[in-house]
Description:
Blueprint (H helix, E strand, L loop, with lengths): L2 H13 L2 H37 L5 E5 L7 H8 L6 H10 L5 E14 L2 E11 L3 H4 L4 E4 L4 H5 L4 E4 L1 H7 L9 E4 L2 E9 L4 E2 L2 E2 L3 E5 H8 L6 E5 L6 H16 L10 E4 H44 L1 H9 L4 H37 L8 H27 L3 H7 L1
Parallel strand pairs: 3-10, 5-7
Antiparallel strand pairs: 1-11, 1-12, 2-3, 2-6, 2-11, 4-7, 5-10, 6-7, 8-9
Helix pairs in contact: 1-12, 2-10, 2-12, 2-13, 4-9, 10-12, 10-13, 11-14, 12-13
Amino acid sequence: MILGDVARTGLAALTAHKLRLFLNLLGIIIAVGTIVAVISVVSGLNQYAANVISGLGPNTVIFTKFGIIRSREEYLAALKRKDITDADLEAVRRLVPQARRIAGRVFSTRPVYAGGRRLADTFVLGAESEFPWMVGLELADGRFFTASEAAAARPVAVIGWDVRDQLFPHVDPIGHQITVEGKPFRIIGTMAKQGSTFGESQDRFVLVPLAAYQHAFGMVRSLDIFVEAPSVAAVPAIEDDVRLVLRSRRGTPFSAPDPFGIIDADALSTLWKSITRSAFLLVILISSISLVVGGVAIANTMFASVVERTREIGLRKALGARRRDLHRQFLFEAVAQSFAGGVAGVFVGWLVALAVGHWSPFPARVTPFLVGTGLTVATLAGLLAGWLPAIRAARLDPIVALRDE
Length: 405
C-alpha cells in the first residue's frame, strides 16, 4: 500500500468524525502552544533581564544593608543589621584607593511639585557625582551635577522623563525649580527615556546630590555604596577589600557572615535565572500533563476506531492487505492528528509570543528551533499514542472480524 493511499484513506477516516477530531487536537494544541509560548517568553525575559542587569556594569559591586532578600526570615534578619553610614562610605573611600570609582546613594519615595502640578510616588535619589557614570545613566538635555556642586550640597537636580513629561509638558524644564516636600531644587538636566522594567517605570525619579538630599530630608535610611573596580578581573579583590573594611568597622567575628548585603551583576543574573527556571519547570510540567492527556485521548479514539472499523479491517485483510499496511494506516491517523495539533499549537504559541513582544518590553520570539521542537514533541506523542492501536488492528484475524460483524 503506497503512502498516498495511506494518507488519503487516513484523512477520510479522520474527517468523518470532526468533533472527535477537534477534541483530540485540543489537548495537543494546548500542550504545544504552552510549551512554545513559555519557552519564547522566558527566553525573552532572560534577554531583557540581561540587558537591564548589564546597565549596572560587570565590574560594579553594591554594598547595602539588605542585599538580595529571598525570604521573610532573611528580611527580618537584615532589619537587625547596622545602617551603612557616611563614615562607612568615607572609610571605604580612604582604605580602598585602588577602586576606580566609589559613590554613595540613598533614595526614598516622595511627592514632587512644579508649576502647580503634583506627581506622587516619585523616587528621589541622593547620590554622589560619580553615580550616573557607574550605572550608565544617559542625559537627554543639560548636564549632571559636578563633584564641587555635590560637595557643597547645592540644591540642583536631574529629572527623569516621566517627571519632565508630567510636570513640564510644554516647556523646557532646565533652569526651572522643582519642589520636593517644600525643598526647592533647580533643574540642570533631564534624562533620556528608559522605559519600564517588569512593568515599573524607570523614568519617574529625581536625582540630587547626596549631601543636598541629607541636608533637605535628613539621613532617614541606610546608604548604598557603589564600588567600581578597574576591570572585571579586579572585582573579587576589590570586593574582598571593601568587605574587610565594613566587617572591621562592625567588629564582625571571622566566622560570622557578613552583616551587610553584596549585589553585583552575577548575583542578580543568578537570582533571576533561578526564579525563571522554577517558573519554567512548573509550566512545562503542566503542559506535559496536557500533552499526556491529549495522547491518551488519541489512543482511546484509535482503539475505538479499531472496534468500529472491524468489518473494514476484515475485508481489507481478506482482499490481501498485509499487517504492515494496516499498521501504517492506523499509525498514520494517530500521527496526523497529533502533528496537526502541533502545527496549530505552534501557531497559538507564536501568537502569544507576538502579543507579549508587542505589548511588553520583553523580546519574545519563536525561533525555527522552537517550531521544530514543538512539532517533534507532537509527532512523538502521536507515535506513542497510535502504536498499540495500530498493532491491534494489524493483528486482527480477518475470519473472526468478518464473523463478528
